Amino acid sequence: MIRPIYVYGHTVLRKKATDIKKDGSIDVKELANDMFETMYSASGVGLAGPQIGLGKRIFVIDGGAMDEELDGFKKVFINAEILEEEGEEWVFEEGCLSIPQIRGEVSRKSTIRIKYYDENWELHEESFDGIAARIIQHEYDHIEGILFTDYLSPLRKQLLKGKLDKISKGKVAADYRVLLPKK
C-alpha cells in the first residue's frame, strides 16, 4: 500500500523515533513492503518511518536506482544503531522525499558500522562505505529527528528559509502523494 509522505513542517519528522517491539504489534514485513512501495512510487532510494508518519525506528533502502554498483542493495533496518562513523568526510548533494525540490551539499564520514534487525528479526552488525553508507546515514538521521538541511551552512539555510517556510505552509509540488502539515 502506498502511503503519503509527510513533508517538512510535520512534527513527527523532528522527533526521535522509538524502538519497534518484537511482540508482533507491528507487522514489520508488511510495513517494510508498504515503505518500499511508497519509496518506489516517489522514485526514492530510502524511506524512514517518520516520513510516513510513524515515529518508529525503521527505514528501508534500495540504492540500485542511485548507483549501479548498489544494484541489489536492498535492506530493511529495524531499531538501528550506528556504532561508529569514520574515514574521510566527503561532500555530496542530497535531497529528501520529505523536502521536495530542495537539495544541498552535505558532508558525511565515508564509513559506518551499524547494528540493526532485518524484517525477519535477525540481528546484523555490518560496515558500509561510500554511497551505501551515505544513504544509511541519511535515513538513520530521520529516525533521530534530523533532516539533511540541518547540516547545511548558515548561509545556505538562510537562502532556503523561504522555500522551507512554503513547504511547511503546504505550498509544495511533488509528483508523489504527500501529507501536508496542518495550517
UniProtKB/TrEMBL annotation:
Example of a GO biological process term: translation
Keywords: Hydrolase, Iron, Metal-binding, Protein biosynthesis
Domain of life: Bacteria
Gene name as annotated: def
Pfam families: Pep_deformylase
Source organism of the structure: Bernardetia litoralis (strain ATCC 23117 / DSM 6794 / NBRC 15988 / NCIMB 1366 / Fx l1 / Sio-4) (Flexibacter litoralis)
Listed EC numbers: 3.5.1.88
Protein name per the record: Peptide deformylase
The record's free-text note on cofactor binding: Binds 1 Fe(2+) ion.
Active site: 139
The keyword Membrane belongs to this UniProt entry's keyword annotation: no
Reaction it catalyzes: N-terminal N-formyl-L-methionyl-[peptide] + H2O = N-terminal L-methionyl-[peptide] + formate
InterPro entries in alphabetical order: Peptide_deformylase (IPR023635), Peptide_deformylase_sf (IPR036821)
Enzyme class: hydrolase
The protein's role, per its UniProt record: Removes the formyl group from the N-terminal Met of newly synthesized proteins. Requires at least a dipeptide for an efficient rate of reaction. N-terminal L-methionine is a prerequisite for activity but the enzyme has broad specificity at other positions.
Family: Belongs to the polypeptide deformylase family.
Metal-binding recorded as keyword: yes
Binding locations of Fe cation: 96, 138, 142
A GO molecular-function descriptor: peptide deformylase activity
Cofactor (UniProt): Fe(2+)
